[in-house]
Write a structure and sequence with these properties.
This protein is an alpha/beta fold. It has one domain: Rossmann fold, CATH 3.40.50.720. It is built from nine helices and ten strands. A six-stranded parallel β-sheet has the order 2-1-3-4-5-8, sandwiched between helices. The chain has a two-stranded parallel ribbon with strand order 6-10. The chain has a two-stranded antiparallel sheet with strand order 7-9.
């Protein structure tokens, strides 16, 4: 196989994918704005043509909750077409992007559709939220000034999965033959964010109390309905407790 490109190759997920592919003996180009060998800026597409030269497979891990994923995907699609050698563009998405009307999710769904309509070979994997996100949300709310409790959205169930397991699956999918939309991946346990928050705080040695807060809006309602869950695809093995213990 020729070189495999990984966008967001220095990020939380991308760096793991890069490492796994290199351990398997592949030539991997880890793309980022700070890369010495392949500096790429997906915001304007600069550097993509050189990075994609001769590549067959692209694993697209780069993402930003601040917006612009669709613009970045457009640049990547156009550059992949120009390269003429890309046979599989692997994309990591999120369970629920088609049913939970959150802005970030809507953008991820738009990228999925852009890829499907691109004329390129694509593979799309949706997963539930990473353990890291649950920890980050709880930690950030625990730092609120002048708030004696930890407020978390009430009644929102979450099914966190280990980023390592997702990286392993992406490395498995990084082959020249595209697979289309593959089966979703979900974590091994479903609990409310309030319950996960209490487990995180206990592991961190905090005695602060979690309080569930009702919120407004269609996105919150979508989460309350469980649109972000994949209970029939609970294929993850690493529990949140094991993740916390490893930290």
């Amino acid at each position: 196989m020729s070189a495999i490109l990984v966008t967001g190759g220095t990020g939380n997920l991308g760096a793991l994918v890069v490492g796994m592919l290199r351990e398997q003996g592949h030539e991997v180009r880890a793309l980022s704005r700070s890369s010495a060998e392949f500096p790429v800026d997906l915001r304007d597409g600069s550097g993509l043509d050189a990075a994609l030269a001769g590549a067959e497979v692209v694993v697209h891990c780069a993402s930003s909750p601040r917006g612009g994923d669709d613009v970045a995907a457009g640049h990547l699609i156009e550059a992949s077409r120009r390269a003429g050698t890309v046979t599989n563009l692997v994309y990591i998405s999120i369970v629920g992007v088609d049913v939970v009307p959150l802005g970030y999710y809507r953008t991820k769904l738009r990228v999925e559709r852009m890829l499907e309509d691109s004329g390129l070979g694509v593979t799309i994997l949706r997963t539930t939220q990473f353990h890291d996100l649950v920890a980050q949300v709880t930690a950030s709310m625990a730092k609120l000034p002048l708030v004696p409790v930890v407020p978390l959205p009430k009644g929102v169930r979450v099914q966190p999965i280990a980023v390592e397991e997702v990286a392993d699956r992406l490395a498995e999918l990084a082959v020249p033959v595209p697979a289309g939309r593959v089966a979703d991946m979900g974590g091994p346990e479903v609990r409310t964010l309030e319950e996960w928050g209490r487990e995180y705080l206990a592991a961190a040695g905090s005695r602060r109390r979690v309080v569930g807060v009702r919120m407004a809006g269609a996105a919150y309602a979508g989460f309350r309905r469980g649109g972000n869950l994949a209970p029939d695809r609970a294929v993850g093995r690493i529990t949140f407790g094991e993740y916390l213990a490893a930290r």
